[in-house]
From TrEMBL:
Residues passing through the membrane, by range: 117-135
Keywords from the UniProt entry: Membrane, Metal-binding, Transmembrane, Transmembrane helix, Zinc, Zinc-finger
Name of the featured protein: GRF-type domain-containing protein
Domain of life, source organism: Eukaryota
Domain GRF-type, chain residue ranges per copy: 24-66
Pfam families per the UniProt record, alphabetical: Zn_ribbon_GRF
Alphabetical list of InterPro entries matching this protein: Znf_GRF
GO molecular function: zinc ion binding
UniProt keyword RNA-binding present: no
Amino acid sequence: MSSVNSSSTTRDRLAKQRGIPTRCNCGEAVNRFTSKTIQNPGRLFHCCPLGSQKDKTHLFKWTDKSVVEEIEDFQDLFDVRAGEAMMTRHESRIQEMEDAMCHYEEKTSECIRELRGIKALFVCCLVMVFLYHIYA
């Protein structure tokens, strides 16, 4: 029973290999061949030289499917780079906004200080008017 599970696990690992394979799970370098069968004449495939049609533990993969996977992975990589570029632009914009907020916080603090000075001057003037009315 364990050999069946082992064989199944190996097949699962082989099925998960994406792109153009270079090595079989046994460690052997993979070769590219041309099919001479009636069902797939002239179709390219990659396989382990130690494998056979009956031995499903070694790698066998059609080259056209491998190339499609390579292109899909490249597109995903390209999309990631586009996303990273967009993120960099947004980070730059965020930094500009943070700088603007810092500038406006300084301006707000400056305005508050000026208002406190005007308030003190107003209170002083009010006291003088009050004293003028009392002593006049």
